[in-house]
Amino acid sequence: MRQLKVYTSLWAMQPHDQSGVKLPYDQVCEMVAAAGFDGMVLDLGAFDVSVAHTVRPHMEAQGLTPLIADFPKTIDSLEDTLHMAADFGAPFVDVIGQVMPLAIDDMVPVIETWMGMSDRIGVPVQFETHRNCITNDLFVTLQLLDRIPDMRLCADLSHYVVDREFWFPLSDDDMGLISRILHRSDSFQGRVASRQQIQLQLDFPQHQKWVDLFKGWWREGLADWRARNPSGDCIFVCELGPPEYAMTGPDGREMSNRWEESQLIMRWVRQIWDDLGGDS
């Protein structure tokens, strides 16, 4: 049986809206579970390991599954995170690798070493499409995929829309490049970007063309995942970050309610999943 599991992230919940108030971890977990999310990402780039251990019992009390996102700055440092993920019961580790050689020939051994660690410890890894890491650039990532057939991705396409400054509408060639990313992706992240903004307000009229573009990509990605996986959980993370990801006005206040927007994305994605055949 295939199931869609929708997560948010602790980073996105600190704070979760324009109030700027950072809620205590127990209240955050209650809110996330009550809204219908299945899990929450613990981002070791935003918080240290001690925070993950502090939040863990509150997540367990609410039945939320943890997912670990790591930003390893050395090749060896990923190993501790993989052991931690195994202990936490995380489905995989989302790797935003900070080891960034300039040449493809030097990148390949880094990815292969991390994949070997993953196999040895028994915790899957997915490499997030993310700026300021080894998958920073769309073209480089596509070359890595060609060189490493077993490399799997977590697709956060917002980074590549900004990185490549795609004109709208995208050309058929550019859409084809994104399709290649989606075909190698085993999970997805929900944020809408434009060519010059990483995180757009979802209800502004001028942003609707980008909203529609991303919804189309999410549909394509989920359909492709279903075609490749007769069973298992497909994880989609609604990750709307606080400022400076979130745009603010002159008073420093966010221009939209990210908590409401994250739930809107969850509803969109669940509807897309159901349209594709649901949990079957």
UniProtKB/TrEMBL annotation:
SUPFAM superfamilies: Xylose isomerase-like (SSF51658)
Isomerase recorded as keyword: yes
Superkingdom of origin: Bacteria
Swiss-Prot/TrEMBL keywords: Isomerase
GO molecular function terms attached to this record: isomerase activity
Keyword Isomerase carried by entry: yes
Protein name according to UniProt: Sugar phosphate isomerase/epimerase family protein
Phylogenetic placement of the source organism: Bacteria, Pseudomonadati, Pseudomonadota, Alphaproteobacteria, Rhodobacterales
